[in-house]
Amino acid sequence: MPDRLVLRDVGKGFSTKKGPLRALDGVALTLADGEFVSVVGASGCGKSTLLRIVGGLEQASEGELILDGSPLLGPGRDRGMVFQQYTLYPWLTAQGNVEFGLRDLPRRQRSEMALEYLNVVGLGEFAHHHPGQLSGGMQQRVAIARALALRPSILLMDEPFGALDAQTRSLMQELLLSIWERDRLSVLFVTHDIDEAIFLADRICVLASKPGRVREVIDVPLPRPRTFEQQMSKEFLQLKSHVRNLIHDEAARNAGFVGSLA
Amino acid sequence: MSNVPSSARQETLTESRRAGISTGKPAGRSPAARRRTRLLLYEPIPRTRYLLLAVCSLGAVFAIWSGLSYGGIVSNLFLPTPTQVWQAAVGEYQSGVLYSDTVASVLRILSGFVVSSALAIPVGVLMGSFKAAEAVIEPAIDFIRYMPAVAFIPLTLIWFGTTTSQKVVILFIGIFFQEVLLIMDNVKTVPRPLVDMAYSLGLSNWQVLRRVIFRSALPGIVDTLRMSMGWAWTYLVVAELVGANDGLGFRIEQAQRYLNTPEILLGIIVIGILGIIFDFGFKAVYAKSFPYMSERKS
Q1: Best CA proximity match to B294, nearest among A93, A133, A126, A138
Q2: Which of A197, B3, B103, B208 has its CA 20 to 30 A from that of A108?
Q3: What number is the ipTM of this complex?
Q4: Domains of chain A: which residue ranges?
Q5: Angle at alpha carbon of residue A171, lines to A168 and A172, rounded to 5°
Q6: CB of A5 within 8 A of CB of A37?
Q7: What's the CATH number for A1-78+154-160+185-262?
Q8: What is chain A's Cα-based Rg?
Q9: How far is Cα of residue B89 from the mean position of the Cα atoms in its chain?
Q10: CA gyration radius for chain B?
């Protein structure tokens, strides 16, 4: 399979009041076409920063980012983004929000596309609702429809289900998987939820923190299409315990639990 | 995440919701209903009760005024009776000055307000979204803003005489600088994820500014304009008190010369009523233009 996204030696430094801070260091990662890769790590490991760099919303201090063979410069519609925070425009309807990214299409085609993708996420009937009239889960489904409607080379998701309750979150994971099965999109998915990372992905990229760097890239051998029951399987739990061990000590250290728990 | 704790959490959630429903029951004799004796902060009240309370409060002010003036507790020279103010209103209406004063004042305030706001909106939006613009403009505005606008009246009278331009200049000095800073803040509170999203949807800087930042800040800007209209009335009346040949402030100043307190009070009341009308207008525009602001769930 051809490479969709290649990250070579990506680093990011910030200057803060306390001096320079390394957020990311020498991150190398390759996403094949149609591959689903999760990025997990303790909070503060720079996983969101990494995604924002790929999204073009922040600039890497060093390294190379290549999408479909050409270097990435700034944000663009070839990457569909979904954030944890609700990013729907409250003055637009669900349909208006999906159409917002399709401005260069003729009006009729735009509204057809928007409705098509609202149907994909099961919200065709809610096309004329404003975000304020939709639940958190529905709002994120509209956000996903908006990203999909761009027909992007890659989908970049930054803890998209992080603000949802547990039941809605697991339904959203299944919805995302069904869309992925249908379209075989390339997805880079940032989360702190290990179950979510394993359940969704072909590979998991575990980041170590301070500075953020790739600790291990793990294949997820679970067969597809995935089902909810797999989350109870022995393989799943073994994988989960492995990833957990990689992250746990660091999470405790970062959160100031040194000595009390470690 | 395992299933057990999450489903347990769900149960507690449903339970509390059920408790919430039973507390809301109006005539129930349940223990929950009896518990509801305390007035809680932020608690909504029925619309009819809201209106009733509002009418009562206005009625109370009127009653105190009537008691003090009709009852002879305060001399009518200082506090005229409602009847006297009504007669003054009828007199000014019949002579036509009530109408011409109102028109003069409203035209002035609208000109000053439109000129100030038309400049304050672009400048404020730019300052809120573009740090360099803020750095260049804000220090000067902070400085001028603390100069009292009414202190410019003598100077502006020398420059422009008692013309409408002079009133517009005073209104401008009074409200432009406040508006700019408030609009800058309106723009700064636009959620960053909305802006990030716009960039990732391929919008240019100019499109982001116009279609996302300005649009998102617009409800806040309309509220800022509504408040600045309130200040505008104060500055206008002061300007008219000092140097004008007509207008509501001028009429008050004239009445003062002849100790005509009913006309003074009439002028104040008319200004108050006009202020409320403008305020209602802004609120109506807000409700009509931004229905999504009130349908938000959280």
Answers
A1: A133
A2: B208
A3: 0.91
A4: 1-78+154-160+185-262
A5: 85
A6: no
A7: 3.40.50.300
A8: 19
A9: 26
A10: 26
* Cβ-based contacts under 8 A for chains A and B: 68
Cα-Cα-Cα-Cα dihedral of B251, B254, B260, B266, to 10°? 10
Cβ–Cβ of B10/A166 closer than 8 Å?
yes
Which member of A52, A55, A89 has the closest CB to residue B194?
A89
On whether any CB of chain B is under 8 Å from the CB of A89, the answer is: yes
pLDDT in tens, chain B (298 residues): 344 444 444 444 444 444 444 444 444 555 555 566 788 898 889 999 999 999 999 999 999 999 999 999 999 999 999 999 999 999 999 999 999 999 999 999 999 999 999 999 999 999 999 999 999 999 999 999 889 999 999 999 999 999 999 999 999 999 999 999 999 999 999 999 999 999 999 999 999 999 999 999 999 999 999 999 999 999 999 999 998 899 999 999 999 999 999 999 999 999 999 999 999 999 999 999 999 988 654 4
Nearest by CB to A132, which of B201, B212, B297? B297
Phi, psi of B78 (to 5 degrees): -90, -40
Q: Which residues pair with A214 in a beta bridge?
A: A207
Q: What is the token pair recorded at B258?
A: 């002849």
Q: Which of B230, B120, B239, B234 is nearest to B184 (CA)?
A: B120
Assess if CATH 1.10.3720.10 describes domain B80-290. yes
Contact check, Cβ <8 Å, A167/B216: no
Distance CA A100, CA A103 (A): 6
Residue whose entry in the numeric block shows the structure tokens 């390394």: A22
Burial of A199 (0-12, 13-18, 19+ CB in 10 A): buried
Tell me the residues of chain A between 148 and 187 that have a Cβ less than 8 Å away from chain B.
150, 165-167
Q: Shortest CB distance from A57 goes to which of B196, B215, B295?
A: B196
Beta-carbon separation of B292 and A57 below 8 A: no
Chain A residues near residue B10 by CB distance under 8 angstroms = 165-167
- Chain B contact present for A132, CB below 8 A: yes
Q: Phi first, then psi: what are they for A215, rounded to 5°?
A: -85, -45
3-state DSSP helix/strand/coil percent for chain A, to nearest 5? 40, 25, 35
Asked whether the bond before B193 is cis by omega within 30 degrees of 0, the reply is no
- Amino acid occupying residue A139: Q
- The reply to whether residue A57 touches residue B194, judged by beta carbons under 8 angstroms, is no
Using the 8-state DSSP alphabet, how is residue A128 labeled?
T
| CA dist B111 → A113, B166, B202, B250 (Å) | 46, 11, 39, 18
Residues of chain B found within 8 Å of residue A89, distances taken between Cβ atoms? 194, 212, 215-216
Sign of CA dihedral A211, A217, A223, A225: positive
Q: Which residues contact A14 (CB under 8 A, 6 or more apart)?
A: A20, A21, A23
Q: Which chain A residues touch B215 with a CB distance below 8 Å?
A: 89, 91
